[in-house]
Amino acid sequence: MNKTGELYAGKAKTVYTTDDPDLLVLEFRNDTSAFDGEKVEQLERKGQVNNQFNAFVMKQLQDAGIATHFVDQLSKTESLVRNLSMIPVECVVRNRAAGSLCRRLGIEEGTELNPPVFEFFLKDDALHDPMINDSHIETFGWATADEVAQMKALTLQVNDVLTNLFAGGDLILVDYKLEFGRFKDRIVLGDEFSPDGCRLWDANTLEKMDKDRFRQNLGNVIESYEAVGRRIGIQFD
What we know:
The protein is built from six helices and 13 strands. The chain is α+β, with helices and mostly antiparallel strands. The chain has two domains: 3-82, 2-Layer Sandwich (Phosphorylase Kinase, domain 1); 85-220, ATP-grasp fold, B domain (D-amino Acid Aminotransferase, Chain A, domain 1, 2-Layer Sandwich), CATH 3.30.470.20.
């Protein structure tokens, strides 16, 4: 499998085309950003840690019957993935109150949410990823009603799998975001799942072990990512 050119460079990943139009190479970089790019740093080992973390989680989801774009880990920082037509919507599940939910609704951080809160956001940095609903998605043609229903069902299925996975490592999956795309007329999980796109707390101390360590200047960002990974069975290179 040969890379043939750069397709897209995001905040923390670069996507390359290959000699197979159905496959892409996803490169995880050390770049780290927060607050819509206002805070940017390079964190040593971040690319390889997130690549291995994502590969492990995607395999867990595939074993549970959830279709993902992940095909194989190619190197410490690169993975082979299916070429999806991405839907510009983020699906967010919140098992506990944190972040923007607390700011918007005045809910105390850490409040258990039962049932979990599900939210849609438009993936648009210039607009600061505004919250949207099913009606917006269907009216503006970002996805059909059936695709919306599939994304929601798959996101909640992911929640069942991953809350149990992280609970086994004495961790709380506080919240997370997922992105989906179309592959041969099928809705498939895309992007990544790593501590960059979720909140994970120690179940006993409630210590934050995710990207909030970077946002809030708590230090030991990558060390915490690795600690989370080891708790759920990842053996980092």
